[in-house]
Specification:
By secondary structure, the chain is mainly alpha-helical. It contains six helices and four strands; from the N terminus they run E-E-H-H-H-H-H-H-E-E. The strands form two sheets. The protein has a two-stranded antiparallel ribbon. A two-stranded antiparallel sheet has the order 3-4. GO terms for molecular function: DNA topoisomerase binding; double-stranded DNA binding; histone H3K36 methyltransferase activity; histone H3K4 methyltransferase activity; single-stranded DNA binding; single-stranded DNA endodeoxyribonuclease activity. InterPro entries: Mos1_HTH, Transposase-MT_Hybrid, WH-like_DNA-bd_sf.
Length: 131
């Protein structure tokens, strides 16, 4: 994957950017200064200060590897068996009510309802084929 700057002649790979982040970090520059330095060479849009701050935090913690570990979504604390039982006990329960009862967001409830095969049909949560 390449990041393209506004200058067509200047492109830099993500691996190269990470090397530059480590270089700037080792020089003792701030994330803001590193951002200005990299942008002055590779152009606007080549990197964000926020990204550099993330990498600098990683380096400060002692991890100098240039691998970008997948951050992904945090593991859900929602028990799908509990959700299934609640929906089957009261199929007309609204997503917001389930979310409030289980202490998670409505988006989390929607995602897990889909994962357990529940769909809304005539104002009830059903498994397709149940009618």
């Amino acid at each position: 994957m390449f990041i393209f700057s506004t200058e067509v002649n200047h492109t830099v790979s993500l691996k190269d950017l990470r090397i530059l982040f480590l270089y700037e970090f080792k020089l003792g520059h701030s994330a803001a200064m590193a951002s200005r330095n990299i942008i002055s060479v590779f152009g606007e849009g080549s990197v964000s200060e926020r990204t550099i701050r993330w990498w600098f935090e990683k380096f400060r913690s002692g991890d100098l590897s240039l691998k970008n570990e997948p951050r992904g979504r945090p593991r859900s604390v929602l028990n799908e068996d509990e959700l299934r039982a609640m929906v089957e006990a009261n199929p007309k329960t609204a997503i917001r009510g389930l979310a409030a009862d289980l202490g998670v967001s409505a988006t989390t409830i929607s995602r897990h309802l889909a994962a357990i095969g529940k769909v809304k049909k005539l104002d009830k949560w059903v498994t397709p084929g149940d009618g």
